[in-house]
């Protein structure tokens, strides 16, 4: 059974269990023929204002989701991410409707596509609305992989030339920021399976390798090798000697296991 079928079953069960939500669940989920249309409708109503109408946004989101198979795949991987990595997530329908990190990420995928099409005015207008509504500020030029999990999401900032790999988990108040005021590559490059703890700041065109971990409130100004942990202000590198010899499988990367404390607990300043 695919995610859309599961989500519809969950919506029907919740509408029966909680009549106050029945009309909301029908309008947002049950009345739509596909995940793409349902998500387009929900995002349009979330991001609309007096001058950027929900009907306009619904057309934009629906057309984009229908036309871009890579976004279709990414949104499903993002849904698997919040369901598998967050024990507080009770269902797919709960995450899709209520997780602002997920919603911000899907709206960013649309703004990024607009950016690549050189429709910069609309891309930036959409970025602004995403920031106002979800408190997540991702420049439309930033590249985000699939399986992204923005946990809590409030205060996340990602700069224009940043890239984020697949199956990355980022907590609240994380900054992937630039250095300098020239139009050049100036933001971090984050690999696959990386976990970035709450309040961490990464500055400049540094590289964070696959399977790396950034501790909470860490200031990272240097490259972080694969499978290593960065912790402190400024960051120091804790090397995982075992992983250097035998790399762990991707499913055990911290971005998917959400292991925040291994190795950090053994760190001595």
Give the secondary structure arrangement, pairings included:
Blueprint: H1 3-17, H2 22-30, H3 35-47, H4 54-67, H5 69-85, H6 92-98, H7 100-116, H8 120-134, E1 136-138, E2 143-144, E3 149-151, E4 156-158, E5 163-164, E6 169-171, E7 175-177, E8 189-190, E9 195-196, E10 201-203, E11 207-208, E12 213-214, E13 219-220, E14 229-231, E15 236-238, H9 241-245, H10 254-257
Parallel strand pairs: 1-4, 2-5, 3-6, 4-7, 5-8, 6-9, 7-10, 8-11, 9-12, 10-13, 12-14
Antiparallel strand pairs: 14-15
Helix pairs in contact: 1-2, 3-4, 5-7, 7-8
Question: Nutshell version of this structure?
Answer:
By secondary structure, this protein is an alpha/beta fold. It is built from ten helices and 15 strands. The longest helix has 17 residues.
Structural account:
Helix 1 (3-17) runs antiparallel to helix 2 (22-30) and helix 5 packs antiparallel against helix 7. The protein has helices at residues 3-17, 22-30, 35-47, 54-67, 69-85, 92-98, 100-116, 120-134, 241-245, 254-257, and strands spanning 136-138, 143-144, 149-151, 156-158, 163-164, 169-171, 175-177, 189-190, 195-196, 201-203, 207-208, 213-214, 219-220, 229-231, 236-238. It starts with a helix and ends in a 12-residue tail after the last helix. The chain is globular, with a radius of gyration of 19 Å. A hairpin with a 4-residue loop joins strand 14 and strand 15. The protein is an alpha/beta fold. The protein has a 6-stranded mixed sheet. Strands 1-4-7-10-13 form a 5-stranded parallel sheet. The protein has a 4-stranded parallel sheet with strand order 2-5-8-11. 42% of the residues are buried.
């Amino acid at each position: 059974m695919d995610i859309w079928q599961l989500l519809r079953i969950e919506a029907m069960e919740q509408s029966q269990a909680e009549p106050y939500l029945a009309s909301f669940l029908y309008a947002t989920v049950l009345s739509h023929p596909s995940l793409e249309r349902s998500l387009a409708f929900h995002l349009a109503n979330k991001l609309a204002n007096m001058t950027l109408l929900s009907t306009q946004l619904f057309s934009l989101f629906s057309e984009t989701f229908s036309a871009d198979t890579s976004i279709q795949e990414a949104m499903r991987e993002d849904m698997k991410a919040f369901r598998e990595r967050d024990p507080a997530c009770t269902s797919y329908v709960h995450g899709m409707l209520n997780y602002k990190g997920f919603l911000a990420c899907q709206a960013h995928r649309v703004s990024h596509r607009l950016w690549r099409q050189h429709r910069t005015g609309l891309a930036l207008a959409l970025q602004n609305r995403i920031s106002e509504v979800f408190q997540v500020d991702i420049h439309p030029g930033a590249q985000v992989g699939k399986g992204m999990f923005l946990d809590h999401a409030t205060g996340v900032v990602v700069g224009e030339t940043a890239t984020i790999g697949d199956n990355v988990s980022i907590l609240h108040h994380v900054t992937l920021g630039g250095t300098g005021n020239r139009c050049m590559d100036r933001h971090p490059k984050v690999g696959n399976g990386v976990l970035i703890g709450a309040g961490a700041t990464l500055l400049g065109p540094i590289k964070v390798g696959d399977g790396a971990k950034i501790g909470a409130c860490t200031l990272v100004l240097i490259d972080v090798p694969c499978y290593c942990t960065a912790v402190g202000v400024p960051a120091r590198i804790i090397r995982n000697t075992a992983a250097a010899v035998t790399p762990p499988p991707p499913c055990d990367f911290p971005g998917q296991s959400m292991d925040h404390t291994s190795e950090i607990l053994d760190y001595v300043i």
